[in-house]
Amino acid sequence: MERFGHLQAITVTPEDTATVVTVARQKFLNALNRMVLAELDFVLDVLLEDVPNKPLIITGEGSRAFVAGADIGEMVNMTPDEALAFSRFGQGVFSKLETFPSVTIAAVNGYALGGGNELAMACDIRIAAKNARFGQPEAGLGIIPGFGGTQRLARIAGKPNALDLILTGRVINADDALRIGLVHKVVDEGKALEESLSYSRAVLKNSPFALSQAKKAVSGAEPSGPGNGMSAEADLFSRCFAHHDQKEGMKAFLEKRRAKFQEEP
Ligand code: COA
Questions:
Q1: Total tally of structural domains belonging to the chain
Q2: Residue 30 lies in a domain
Q3: Strand 19-23 relative to strand 56-60: parallel, antiparallel, unpaired?
Q4: For the stretch 31-43, what's the b/e string if a residue is b when 16 or more beta carbons lie within 10 angstroms of its beta carbon?
């Protein structure tokens, strides 16, 4: 995998049963900035050409976080137009992952919040370690999920659970995520990658062509297609960046204090 040598925030490791793609920005709990998204996009393009039939495992560096969200330091000063472009770009990368022809698995250790949960939800299968934590805390920052989370969470866990998580911003543990169907399996701490590799082995015995057709068929069978919802999500996400509460919410996070939001919406 020499073609990936120049990457700064993603590592690609070929294993016998799968290719492991790791978000490696541990200092920031693997938060997604534009560079990480661009590198992920590049990696998916190369893998699509080279080994499109091999299962793909997405994980985060270290045990504390899968991905703790989009990078708040990068978003704090975005204009609405920049936020719209950021949302569309992230949506595009995650859609590429969702439509990847082989089986994709998120191996989740620690926090999968905001964009981290959205990244995990763009995979076919989510395997969580006991210390995994899931949530969409964006409203506490004065914004909404912008990388497909409003659409995928409702599809995966149902609209009531999606609204509950998005409106409260609360963080749930792996067992609660299993209960609402957000993850497929919970394993002991430190075992998510091992279990994902073994899951890959199990699907490898099936026809790769049949798997890619099955993914397309299941995706087409979903009650509401991603089209309009995604576009509305990007517009609404961008609108938040024209409002006082986004600047205040993100500055408060970076300054490690409680945000003071406007009383009127
Ligand atoms: N964007 C940018 N930086 C982030 C980040 C994010 N989404 N999540 C964490 N970090 C950074 C922190 O700012 C901190 O940096 P510092 O060491 O320079 O202060 C570092 O990662 C470690 O995080 P910290 O908050 O100190 O760890 P913690 O264990 O106290 O809390 C979390 C962990 C995940 C609960 C907390 O970091 C958090 O709430 N992160 C934001 C989650 C979020 O709102 N995501 C959605 C974004 S749209």
A1: 1
A2: yes
A3: parallel
A4: bbbeebbebbbbb
Taking CA atoms only, the protein residue closest to ligand 1 atom 29 is 64
Q: Give me 53's structure tokens.
A: 């039939």
Residue 5 tokens read as 């040598």
130's CB contacts (< 8 A; 6+ apart) are: 174, 186, 187, 188, 189
pLDDT at 51 over 90: no
112 lines ligand 1 (CB under 6 A): no
Write the CATH number for 76: 3.90.226.10
- Which has the closest alpha carbon to 236: 145, 136, 100? 145
68 lines ligand 1 (CB under 6 A): yes
Rounded to the nearest angstrom, the distance between the alpha carbon of 141 and the centre of ligand 1 is 12
Minimum CA distance residue for ligand 1 atom 8: 68
pTM comes to 0.95
Q: Sign of dihedral through CA atoms 201, 56, 118, 236?
A: negative
Ligand 1 centroid to Cα of residue 183, in Å, is 23
Query: For ligand 1, is residue 138 a contact (CB within 6 Å)?
Result: yes
In a domain, 90, yes or no: yes
Within-domain flag for 140: yes
Ligand 1 mean position, distance from CA 256 (Å): 10
* C-beta of 111 in contact with ligand 1 (< 6 A): yes
Q: What is the pLDDT of residues 218-239, one digit of tens each?
A: 887 665 555 689 999 999 999 9
Q: Render pLDDT for 144-154 as a digit per residue (tens, 0 to 9).
A: 999 999 999 99
